[in-house]
Specification:
By secondary structure, this protein is of the alpha+beta class. 33% of the residues lie in helices and 23% in strands. The chain has ten helices and 13 strands. The strands form four sheets. It has a seven-stranded mixed beta sheet with strand order 6-5-4-11-12-3-13, sandwiched between helices. α2 packs across α4. Keywords: ATP-binding, Cell projection, Cilium, Coiled coil, Cytoplasm, Cytoskeleton, Microtubule, Motor protein, Nucleotide-binding.
Length: 313
């Protein structure tokens, strides 16, 4: 459960800094090394949340970290090594199939990206930019998003692969196919009992799976011009997410902290999943390369702060 980060620039013969090591230790709920398989990561992070979604709790899984550390691989995976998206949906459908006698289910999913603070539908990229709206019950909706309802994991895999090709990817100095946007897969499970009762209750559980854009510093990517602006937008939304996480983790105590979810589209969309009726997992990715020591350190600090959030489910 422990990550020890060694500083590559440390010189063992430096007498002045002999007692001041920059070695940092972080403790998390779960730590995976380079040998961990997709299956292991999925079972220990996400599998336990699926039952909750079916019984009406929200769940959110974040993949966070600098570019090139494997966020998209963890979430989407490859054909032979599918990632969390597919495994989670597979489990969801299997569990739903087992309980079809008593309940009627509908599962709908949408896949979108947030790029430069605008929302694009990845399943129907021609629809242009979409708006976030609030419905009378106070939940956030995206006007005009394509919703697909299917209970076949294979079909979904094809949809996601197709959608992922529509994502805004640009080569940067840090990674050849760097995703420059946050991709959000939103799965909504609604269920109602088959026995007709007078008070017909409908349970809704939402599962958000978010593949965030790379959190590296601009110097690392050597971006100029448009890429630079884009990186600023990415970092702004990650900062907004960080601010919400900070405010939420400082909530216990006497002074009530104001959580500003409206700072970015991402936090506004995930409002219920961060502070509300939800269980949240953050999978932080770091690179073992010594060149990305700073990035790894920032990522671990960020994820470590997120660990302090206490939500009431």
């Amino acid at each position: 459960q422990r990550v020890v980060l060694m500083d590559p620039t440390e010189d063992p013969d430096d007498i002045l800094r002999a007692n001041r090591s920059r070695e940092k230790t972080f403790v998390f709920d779960m730590v995976f090394d380079h040998r961990a398989t997709q299956e292991e990561v999925y079972v220990s992070t996400t599998k336990s949340l699926i039952g909750g979604v079916i019984s009406g709790y929200n769940a959110t899984i974040f993949a966070y970290g600098p570019t090139g550390t494997g966020k998209t691989y963890t979430m989407l995976g490859t054909d032979c090594e599918p990632g969390i998206y597919i495994r989670a949906l597979d489990d969801l459908f299997k569990t739903l199939d087992a309980t079809t006698e008593e309940m009627d289910y509908t599962v709908s999913m949408s896949y979108l990206e947030i790029y430069n603070e605008v929302i694009r539908d990845l399943l129907n990229p021609t629809s242009g930019f979409l708006d976030l709206r609030e419905d009378p019950r106070g939940s956030i909706q995206i006007a005009g998003i394509t919703e697909v309802s299917t209970t076949n994991a294979q079909e979904i895999m094809q949809l996601l692969m197709k959608g992922n090709k529509q994502r805004t990817q640009e080569p940067t100095a840090a990674n050849r196919t760097s995703s420059r946007s946050h991709a959000v897969l939103q799965v909504t499970v609604t269920q109602k009992s088959r026995r007709k009762a007078i008070g017909e209750e409908v349970r809704t559980g939402k599962l958000f799976m978010v593949d965030l854009a790379g959190s590296e510093r601009a110097a690392q990517t050597q971006n100029r011009g448009k890429r630079m602006k884009e990186g600023a937008h990415i970092n702004r939304s990650l900062l907004a997410l960080g601010n919400c996480i900070n405010a939420l983790s400082e909530k216990r105590g006497s002074r009530a902290q104001f959580v500003n979810f409206r700072d970015s589209k991402l936090t506004r969309l995930l409002k219920d999943s961060l502070g509300g009726n939800s269980r949240t997992v953050m999978i932080a990715h770091i690179s073992p390369a010594s060149t990305s020591f700073e990035e790894s350190r920032m990522t671990l600090i960020y994820a470590y702060r997120a660990k302090n959030i206490k939500t009431q489910v």
